[in-house]
């Protein structure tokens, strides 16, 4: 079988945009779709997302967040209930107007975020101080349609995210959670993606539409000289509670509006990681998010004992996996070792082990 050519056509420091578009395809993270701004997330990207999700899910369960899933569609009346909120998202809202060839009686919005989908039901479920704090989280897709120059992971019309929504009796509790979640987002970027970020508070112009204030973690992309928003943690105050009549009765029988937060991070985090660490040989994966941390490659020279070499490779993979590493063997015999080196460098594998006849004889690997 003829080997396909590997390598990059563009240099990161010469044509950054073209390099980025090429490296995410060549590393098998993304495939372009036939609708502009929409992309296929291939297993290499989804496995990275799942590793981050595993960490974050465990952390928010400690905070007693409960899993929910709310529908993708939102009625026009509900979406427009909070004026500042809908104006902030109006240009990006996609609308369903037909079923088959028939017009719907009223257009239905595809969620750009879920506050207006969730909060009518918070009003139904939250009645007493005993119901607080109310904490829910969902992992889902989001649609934000109208924009120019889509960029995979960074700015797409459909993306994956986690969104947490909480309600408290007091502003102090809400403020405390905002910063706690912001710290979790910092940990995702710095401890898992090895991307340094700044924690801070957005200006009034930049804050979440309809919210009280917004905090965020911001990364820096050296090749563009620009900052990029990594994740946000919003204090919504009581604005949405007043719009959707979310009240609770305290111990003395007094009814008050709840204080609310919402917070999210998205698959944009993967793109920020690629932009930060990738080079002219491919993406570079920090070990904690690498789906495969160690790849073992047999290097059988002519007349070598290939069975013994493969056995040694399998033994190395088994030992590494038993030790808690994510290791795998590339035993494909239709590709040369050199091609495999380039392939796994393109995919950003942190560590490569090669085992050949000399290694076998010396009982060592390199």
Describe the overall structure.
The protein is of the alpha+beta class and 366 residues long. Helices cover 34% and strands 27% of the residues. The protein contains eleven helices and 17 strands. It has helices at residues 16-26, 43-62, 76-79, 83-89, 115-125, 171-192, 239-244, 268-277, 306-322, 337-346, 357-362; strands at residues 30-32, 39-41, 66-67, 73-75, 94-99, 102-110, 134-143, 158-168, 197-201, 213-221, 226-237, 247-249, 255-257, 259-266, 294-298, 327-329, 351-355. A seven-stranded mixed sheet has the order 3-7-8-14-11-10-9. Strands 4-6-5 form a three-stranded antiparallel sheet. β10 and β11 form a beta hairpin. It is elongated. The protein starts with 15 loop residues before the first helix and ends with a helix. The model has no long low-confidence stretch (mean pLDDT 93).
Q: Pick out the low-confidence regions.
A: none
Radius of gyration of CA atoms, rounded to a whole number: 25 Å
Query: Whole-number average pLDDT?
Result: 93
Beta-strand segment tally: 17
Strand order of the largest sheet: 3-7-8-14-11-10-9
Beta-strand fraction estimate: 25-35%
Shape: elongated
- Helix proportion range: 25-40%
What is the chains' assembly state? single chain
Structural class: alpha+beta
Q: For the terminal residues, how far apart are their CA atoms?
A: 28 Å
The biggest sheet, with number of strands, parallel, antiparallel or mixed sense and barrel status, is: 7 strands, mixed
Number of helical segments? 11
């Amino acid at each position: 079988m003829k080997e396909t050519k590997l390598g990059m056509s563009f240099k990161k420091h010469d044509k950054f945009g073209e390099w980025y578009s090429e490296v995410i395809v060549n590393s098998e993270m993304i495939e372009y779709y036939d609708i502009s701004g929409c992309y296929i997330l291939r297993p290499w990207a989804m496995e990275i997302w799942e590793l981050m999700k595993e960490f974050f899910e465990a952390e928010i369960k400690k905070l007693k967040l409960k899993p929910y899933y709310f529908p993708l569609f939102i009625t026009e009346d509900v979406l427009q209930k909070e004026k500042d909120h809908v104006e902030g998202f109006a240009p990006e809202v996609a609308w369903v107007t037909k079923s088959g060839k028939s017009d719907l009686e009223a257009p239905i919005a595809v969620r750009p975020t879920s506050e207006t989908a969730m909060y009518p039901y918070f009003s139904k479920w939250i009645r007493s101080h005993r119901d607080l704090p109310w904490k829910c989280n969902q992992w889902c897709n989001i649609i934000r349609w109208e924009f120019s120059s889509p960029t995979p992971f960074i700015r797409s019309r459909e993306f994956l995210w986690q969104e947490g929504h909480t309600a408290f009796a007091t502003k102090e509790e809400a403020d405390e959670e905002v910063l706690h979640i912001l710290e979790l987002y910092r940990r995702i970027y710095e401890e898992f993606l090895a991307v340094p970020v700044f924690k801070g508070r957005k200006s009034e112009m930049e804050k979440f539409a309809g919210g009280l204030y917004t905090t965020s973690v911001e990364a820096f992309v050296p090749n563009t000289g620009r900052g990029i928003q990594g994740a946000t943690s919003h204090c919504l105050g009581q604005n949405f509670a007043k719009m959707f009549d979310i009240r609770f009765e305290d111990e003395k029988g007094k009814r008050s509006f709840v204080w609310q937060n919402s917070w999210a991070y998205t698959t944009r985090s993967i793109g920020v990681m690629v932009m930060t660490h990738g080079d002219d040989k491919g993406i570079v994966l920090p070990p904690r998010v690498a789906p495969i941390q160690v790849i073992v490659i047999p290097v059988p020279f002519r007349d070598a004992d290939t069975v013994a070499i493969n056995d040694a490779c399998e033994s190395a993979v088994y030992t590494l996996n038993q030790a808690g590493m994510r290791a795998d063997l590339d035993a494909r015999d239709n590709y040369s070792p050199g091609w495999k080196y380039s392939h796994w460098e393109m995919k950003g594998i942190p560590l490569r082990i090669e085992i050949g006849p000399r290694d076998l004889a010396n009982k060592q690997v390199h």
